[in-house]
Design a protein that fits this description.
120 residues; mainly alpha
Length: 120
């Protein structure tokens, strides 16, 4: 990637956080698909967490990329959604997709917490 254009002023830390958010968003979407195939009541609660996390991570990445003044607060909320989603996915420790999702959520939550504490 060249150092011209909108990304050039973005810190490495922020770029990493945007990537973690986008990666988490994708895996949440994939996990929703596998969750829907399973059906059942337990999956409904996991689905809620997945939907919240998927939406939050996408929005959080968008806000950081456009340098929204609300980015830090959004990162804090996003970390919370990611934590809740990781916890929900951990309720199915035998499912490898759920475990991959929980890992992506944890990584994203950690990066978002760091960004929430940073001055953007």
């Amino acid at each position: 990637m060249t150092q011209t254009g909108p990304m050039s002023a973005m810190s490495k830390q922020m770029q990493d956080c945007v990537e973690a958010c986008m990666s988490c968003h994708s895996i949440c979407e994939e996990t929703m698909s596998s969750c829907m195939q399973m059906g059942g009541q337990a999956q409904m609660q996991i689905m809620r967490a997945l939907i919240d996390c998927s939406e939050m991570t996408r929005m959080c990445a968008d806000m950081m990329m456009r340098r929204s003044p609300l980015s830090a607060e959004m990162c804090a909320m996003c970390a919370k959604a990611c934590d809740m989603c990781a916890e929900a996915c951990m309720s199915m420790p035998d499912d490898p997709q759920m475990m991959r999702c929980a890992e992506a959520c944890r990584r994203c939550a950690e990066m978002c917490r760091t960004m929430a504490g940073a001055t953007m």
